[in-house]
Amino acid sequence: MTLVAAATVGALFALGTFLLLREDLVKVIWGLAIISQAANVYLISMGGITEATSETVPVLSSHHEPFADTVDPVVQALVLTAIVISFGMTAFALALSYRAYQENESINVTEWKQ
Amino acid sequence: MTAWLAIAPVLVVIVTGTVALLVRRWPRLQRTVSVTGTLAYAAAVGALSWEVALAPDASGIAYQLGGWVAPFGITLVADALSAFMLAITAVVAVYAVVFSVQFIDEQNQRVYYYPLFQFLLLGATGALLTGDLFNLFVWFEVMLMASYVFVAFYGNARHTAAAVRYVVLNIVGGAIMLLGIGGLYATTGTLNMADMAVQLADPATNTAPVVGLSALVFVTFALKAGLVPFQFWVPSAYRAAPLPVVAVFAGATKKVGIYAIVRLYFTVFGNTSIGVDVPGVAGDTALTFLGPILLVMGLASVLVGGLGAVSRDSLEELLAYSSIGQIGFIAVAVGVAALTPSLRHLGIVAGLIFALHHAVSKGLLFLSTAVVRDMVGSTRLSNLGGIGERSPTFASVFLVGGLSLVGIPPLAGFFGKLFVFEAATRQFASAAGDTTATASAALILAVLFAGAVLTILYATRAWIGTFWGAQTEGVKSGVLDGTQVAILATFAVVVLAVGAGFEPVYQFADAAAEAALDTDGYVEIVGLGGENA
Fold first, then answer.
1. ipTM beyond cut 0.90
2. Has residue A59 been placed in a domain?
3. How many domains does chain A have?
4. Domain spans, chain B
């Protein structure tokens, strides 16, 4: 599981970095979105999966064993916040890229005169 | 008790920002709300500073958000260090908002200018007060979100191009910071900074990953602060954003990066011993690891900023490069503090005083640039000249800012430079006997000296180009706004007052440095386990 998570994060970062280095602004924004998501996947895998006990998950005290494995709820909360932030950022970046395209008359960032 | 004071500045800006958004249809009312709100913010910061740093029985205070006990909830922590940085922010913000009323034209003021300004302030305030690492990330994003819009504010080709670069860099920076935070959480099992300090001090914790993880968050902070090699966004963003906002960028948001470095490395990581050997680094704490890196980055910033500023041909680009260089001075002071345990206190004091000086002096100069822009319609040095003849008052305002940048007593800049050089000289003295250490300390001094000379050069260049010589066409036909100059004249008095009445400023900075280094005190303020809840 750890290996799968690590490979996924690595692949996402590689793809994101590749897109980030393109000349086409839309691809750059895609790269940003993917890098943000890669960070989120990494963040969620930092919590790890552990055996559940009623110590860590209070609601389980009224349930019967065996319990399913649980994940750390803190990182889940963090990732939710981070997803919302990266959603807003991506939306803004897309809107901005359209305006930048109109003003600079090219979607290729290397052709911008400014 | 007075715990609510810790959240007061945040509440004031959030309310001001929201109300400013609601009264958007009534521009006069909106202006009144923004100015009053920012003054209320300054008052809240003043009260907080008195409570946690200046009063005879001052001590830090913590506010547990939602009543959740630390380390489980989010804690807002106000100690002398936070209060000092907040005070800097408040001074710059008040002048920037009052000046905006005069400077930003009617039409532009109506497109969400004031609400955004308040949200920019909100991000900076939250970042300075929070005691939770992930919350720090969130406040950074709040601050950035507003600053993106400001960089793209005028919406033409160069503004949008600058904004795209700024946004891309900062989103990547944000992702990198998340990586660092996630790793630190996995290492220590907590996000609360005080709790993290406790966990790291526990010998049972494996602290080896902290070197790399702290480097990841450091990268993001350095990006915010605009240190070399992360300075690329600074000139274009500063050239694109409205000038009063640039004064806040240079004065407040950049300093948040420096604050975060000081807070995390000195207060939280502090003297965590790290069981790995990093090649070429003596010692084994997070700070000895940070020291050389910060020094190299700071020195490079001093040179890049200085050389860049000397060769630019418009006022705001010159000042933007100058601000890269000046942040370098702060970084060098903090780097010296990290490297040499005996100079820790002095180095932080030097960094803080320089930060204060840079915020007020550079704020004054950026706002003066705005006056020039309004009058002449251009800030290219080739289009300027002879403004000194037109208005001796405005010339003397600019002169105060310029001389303060150069470091002439009794202005604010004198003490900034004095302390930074004192820290560097002491390090030179303490290195006696050790050849490598002496050589590197000498190099630091030499670069700082070169940086100071470059500062004199570009400040003189800006002064001569703008105020001396024959009046150009633009200057002859331009109309100088008397109100703007009057506002700046009072700002110039502030720059003078910081230097002339230096004793209380020093005490404040001294208390702030004390707070930055006092990990146990910080943990006690936060009250882990809920003694304060």
1. yes
2. no
3. 1
4. 3-523
